[in-house]
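debug: dumping io for the single-chain case to check the tokenizer round-trip. Nothing else runs in this session.
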Amino acid sequence: MRVVVLSDIHGVLPALEAVLAEPDVRSADRIVLTGDLASGPQPVETLDALRALGDRAVWVRGNADRELVALSRGEQIPVPDRISPWAAAQLRPDQLDLLDSLPLASTLDLGQLGTTVFCHATPRDDEEVVLVDSRLDRWAEVFATLDEQESTVVCGHTHMPFVRLADRRLVVNPGSVGMPYGGAGAHWALLGEDGAVTLRVTRFDIDAACARVTAESAYPDARKWADYFVRSQASDADALRTFGPRDGRAG
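debug: decoded output
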């Protein structure tokens, strides 16, 4: 089957709509959503758009999805920015129930790609960090719960696209649809019937998207948020410097 992977949408509806309009996305057999879907300026609308995908969608929980549920219940948890509590307060009960029901990981048999595990951060945890340049023993550590036949892992979380081998296991990160680091545009991945993996970027009108987020979102800092994240003002180098220490590397 042909599978599209969308990760880290973060409630940016114009970016999501641009990707969903792509011919390869419209014709895909499955659309796997690897977490952090709604924590952003348009959470309600984004989840409604994803639900409209119906049975084609395969949902996986991200750390931000888990945090939205916890915040909605009044739990005191650390969150990286002020938009998460705001987004949690916007969601309907049925949307919170949906997020609360999502699995940590999901598995599909993808022919030449083999048994493929889809997760947000790693197969065992929704927020630990691995990067394109993480050392091999770190990859072995986070893959400790996998069976040998699970030969491909598709993850998100760090908002930076890459494809690499980690001791014979293929690892794919599609990057972020709504909060890309290293370049504007909506990043996603296409897993083909022949085992090919293609990292894709959907270009859209960034100025119009930021203006739309500002106009349509009730989040008080929507303009500032969109100008920073949708425009991808953080580079991949910035992100690697920030995330690097979290994969246990020395120095």
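debug: round-trip ok. Residues 206-216 form the longest helix (11 residues).
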